[in-house]
Amino acid sequence: MRPTCRTCAIRPSAVCRALPPEALDQINRLSHRKHLTAGRTLFAAEDGDHTVATVLAGVAKTSVTSADGRTQIVGLHFPGDFIGRPHAAGSANMVEAATDMDVCLFDKSRFEALLREHDGLSRLLMARMTEDLDAARQWMFLLGHKSAAERLASFIALCIDRLEPRCGADTEAKPASRIDLPLSRTEIGHFLGLTIETVSRVLRRLQTAGVIEIESGRGIRVVDREALAATASAATD
Amino acid sequence: MRPTCRTCAIRPSAVCRALPPEALDQINRLSHRKHLTAGRTLFAAEDGDHTVATVLAGVAKTSVTSADGRTQIVGLHFPGDFIGRPHAAGSANMVEAATDMDVCLFDKSRFEALLREHDGLSRLLMARMTEDLDAARQWMFLLGHKSAAERLASFIALCIDRLEPRCGADTEAKPASRIDLPLSRTEIGHFLGLTIETVSRVLRRLQTAGVIEIESGRGIRVVDREALAATASAATD
DNA sequence: CTTGGCGATTGATCCCGGTCAAACCGCGAG
DNA sequence: CTCGCGGTTTGACCGGGATCAATCGCCAAG
């Protein structure tokens, strides 16, 4: 009953979907799954790691830290996302598990061989990297110009978008949806370029405005998706 | 006397260097050079463009603009840089010439064919995209956590690093170096997440501090490289 | 020459979010 | 049960940079 690539639930949303069915057994041999508890380091900075990974469950974070200790989370990696730097020098930034998570690991050089062998995989990966770059640039806009409320709303919208269990069939809007935020208040601050206090205050303000409901700790319920989207992109209040 | 790939001065620093000499005539036929005056649009947003490019001279900027008019410059493209989104849907952001510039254009599908044909080109491009992503993430740190002075110093250091005419042989420090900034004050503001007034003031402050000298307009002379690097602090690496 | 336009500079004031400080809350250990 | 600890919330105050506004410098057109 050991899980294999054949039965992999996230394969349709992972880069592996570019591989033909015949290759599944091959990549099944090359990969191995691993469970990581929250906080565990996946790739260290300044470390010539030789692994790439696909997120199966949970969320990972990539962060940049300066000499004087300031930290910026520069990317989140949700289920289906690819993490790694094929054909590039080992990681420049640190990647850690933000929540408990499961990953599917490949040896980097083996994966590079796969890329050479399967053109579709190479193309899909390149498209993914382009998406990552677009996402990073969108976040640069957020960090450069958005107000605290816009930042929080954008962050919540992102999490809802990537984490809400979606039931393939119904695409129509739901009255309310709840998720557990994958980051602590401190981490949210580091992701949004805000302090923990501001995060807390603005979250509260969004709650009194009737946009969201904060459950104890990380639980959050979006009451008004419209208002959330509006707050994410427009001027405050 | 028409310039060709054989005599191309920036080829050593462009992705084309991954192509074997035998392929030079081939890519020479596939590419064509173009001059763009400052402000001209290279790729429009929301536009299924079918071109990719290498910067030969001058500087291009990629920017994100929100519905309400706020603009963020999310990337600069210096000579040798590759611009384009092979294997991905046409551009998400707008790319414009920041200064007068020369580019070398390829038809996107032809370039994709080249990628398939030449494995080394594919690998180098992937490495370049990884670098771009790293640069974007470094800039996210700047936008999220750096002070105005740190931002300006980082920006000037970046420009010096990429634009200063470097004489291959001598790597040792020079007493002073001057360049023309590739962006107007307004654009610098959009790149750094600051207002034009703050840019002006901080630049002045850096001058009175003896770090730089501002010549009329865009000309700038770095008097104290050490101090500049120190002001940029929080490692740009 | 004057005029007008655009970008840059400089000054005065305001406000959002940072900083400092003090509870508060849930939870596991003793 | 109490204690202590880490994460969170809340309040009071402060300051860096935004905003508003006036002026300057340069250059091209009249």
Task: Characterise this structure.
Two copies of one chain form a homodimer. Chain A is an alpha+beta fold and 237 residues long. The first copy, chain A, has two domains: 138 residues, Sandwich (Jelly Rolls), CATH 2.60.120.10; 87 residues, Arc Repressor Mutant, subunit A. Chain A is built from seven helices and eleven strands. Chain A has a four-stranded antiparallel beta sheet with strand order 1-8-3-6. In chain A, strands 2-7-4-5 form a four-stranded antiparallel beta sheet. In chain A, helix 4 packs across helix 6. The longest helix of chain A is centred in the middle third of the chain and has 27 residues. Chain A is globular. The interface between A and B is large, with 44 and 45 residues. The structure holds a DNA duplex (30 and 30 nucleotides).
Name its key features.
Jelly Rolls, homodimer, DNA-binding, 237 residues, Arc Repressor Mutant, subunit A, 38% helix
SSE layout:
2 copies of one chain form a homodimer.
Chain A: H1 24-30, E1 31-36, E2 41-43, E3 51-57, E4 60-65, E5 71-77, E6 82-83, E7 94-97, E8 101-107, H2 108-117, H3 119-145, H4 148-163, E9 177-180, H5 185-192, H6 196-208, E10 212-214, E11 219-222, H7 225-233
Helix pairs in contact in A: 2-3, 4-6, 4-7, 5-6
The structure holds a DNA duplex (30 and 30 nucleotides).
How many domains make up the coordinates of chain A?
2
Largest interface: A-B, 44 and 45 residues
Structural class of chain A: alpha+beta
- Which fold name fills CATH's third level, the topology of the largest domain in chain A? Jelly Rolls
Helix content of chain A: 25-40%
Quaternary status of these chains?
A: homodimer
Let me know the average pLDDT of chain A. Answer: 90
CATH architecture of the largest domain in chain A: Sandwich
Shape of chain A: globular
Strand order of the largest sheet of chain A: 1-8-3-6
Q: What is the number of helical segments of chain A per DSSP (H or I, 4+ residues)? A: 7
First-residue to last-residue Cα separation of chain A: 53 Å
CATH superfamily of the largest domain in chain A: Jelly Rolls
